[in-house]
Amino acid sequence: MSKPSDICIESAETTSQRIAYRAPIKFGGRVVTDVVLLHVTLDVITCDGRRGRGVGSMPLGNAWAWPTASLSSEQTLATMHDLGRRVVTESARRRFVGHPLDITRNLAESYASVAAEVMRDAGLRETMPPLAQLVAASPWEAAVHDAFGQALGQNAYNLLGPEWVSADLSHYLSADFTGEYLDRYTLRSPQPRMPLYHLVGALDPLSTADVQKPLSDGLPETLGEWILADGLTHLKIKLAGDDLPWDVDRVVAVEAAAAPAQQARGRKQWNYSLDFNEKCQNVDYVLDFLAQLESRSPVAFQRVQYIEQPTHRDLKAHPENRMHKAARIKPVVIDESLLDLESLLLCRELGYTGVALKACKGHSEALLMGAAAQKYGMFLCVQDLTCPGRSFLHSASLAARMPTVAAIEGNARQYCPAGNRDWADRYPTMFRVTDGTLGTSVLDGVGLGY
Length: 450
Prior knowledge:
Elements: E1 7-27, E2 30-46, E3 51-59, H1 62-65, H2 73-94, E4 97-98, H3 100-108, H4 111-121, H5 130-152, E5 194-200, H6 223-230, E6 234-238, H7 244-264, E7 271-275, H8 283-296, H9 298-303, E8 304-308, H10 324-327, E9 332-334, H11 341-349, E10 354-358, H12 363-375, E11 379-383, H13 389-400, E12 408-409, H14 412-415, H15 421-424, H16 428-431, E13 437-438
Parallel strand pairs: 5-6, 5-12, 6-7, 7-8, 8-9, 9-10, 10-11
Antiparallel strand pairs: 1-2, 1-4, 2-3, 5-13
């Protein structure tokens, strides 16, 4: 049954923006030097006549969402861009009525068919992966939730209970959630302050000896400089996954570079997360890595908070990649593999103990998977896609509304700070870091919170 607060999309449009990185990022064997943002603006009207305008923005991270040897980066980017635009057009044409959870779910059922049309029109034979489809549609999903809150004059995270949603979570997930709503799994106010996870990319200099060509743009250039400038306490380390000596050496070197800077700030405790970007052949690689790291640097080993997606993202095709032994040592979370509840349940069977949420997979999906992770007692984190400006605030608002998330990942300030300039004065606690934390209490406005 419809509710007076249910919305219908009246009009929608897209724009895009390309931003060059100040320094390249290397992950999973790929090097990225810029970002293309897709921005979506849409107008909605509620069943009782209230109107709102919502905005969403997200990087079209094709290198991450669609790694392929058969198509160029330009081709995957262009087709994801085209899909994002067509999703927006379709949403205005179909005029679904309902809560944003229902509108986004209804249109998501057509993502694959619209993506197939995009590929045919481009004369390309490859199928667009589901992850790339989710990323392309994610700015539209953000705009829908934002517009809903704007129309009702409330924060969208506070519009997830039975007063606003027509069906309980069993409708979106499974019978395990009968009688429950997302308000049970989200906070009514954002966490007031959260630690920031800083990325240590495979190409990033750890010390001045590693700086081959200074950028000289006023920002820190080495890990030690970043720690001193921003007071960092959480470091995410990108690893190769197919070069065990390099990976162990890299973490040991990060510890050696971080320790003097942390000592200068008077800190004894800080954390690492380790990201292999699916490149490990099997769990034995992870086990060997952990054993060698503990032997080489017990203190660095102790600092490891969790490990991200060490093996191939296709869990069904690689059921041999079981993580039980590694997860008994450190939490192991899926990232690229997380597409829906089925993939979350499969990852549990394969021994994963946590999931990484990303706003770029769609706001509705992130909320639902966050609820499922909490229901099943899994480690939960929210990760970045080098999101600048509005897209970073979206990602941060998601993290701040999940009660079990302990930190926020945000690396656009390192690689594409130009995308943050229009936002820093409006949200200084989110873009000017001095003590390793972000002041997320400001993300309590109407719509998605900013």
